[in-house]
Design a protein that fits this description.
This protein is mostly helical. It has a domain at 4-73. Helices cover 70% and strands 0% of the residues. The protein has helices at residues 4-46, 52-72, 78-90. It is elongated, with a radius of gyration of 22 Å.
Length: 110
Amino acid sequence: MESGQGHATDLREQALESLKKKQGFKAHVATYLAVNVLLVVIWIVTGGPFWPAFVIGGWGIGVAANAWDVYGRKPITEDDLDREAEWLQARGRTQSVTDPGQTGRGKPVP
């Protein structure tokens, strides 16, 4: 059985990782906005077809993927690992599945 201290440490590490991802995402969005505003200003000055759309759209896909990674993706849990191991074993893709103690059920895997 896992001690309360270990659980609190794991939770703090997960919280720290989550905060770092959110901080990185905010920096990514700020950079995206600043660069694309600059490109639109350049387009306004130079004229022609709206070429910044390619950068805005392409990079926007990357920003959306980053947002999903930070805010939408669920962490992999011990239960997820167990289900995947059972699935692989049922299809003969692994020799054996070992479980070192059945601790941490439902907790995210580091």
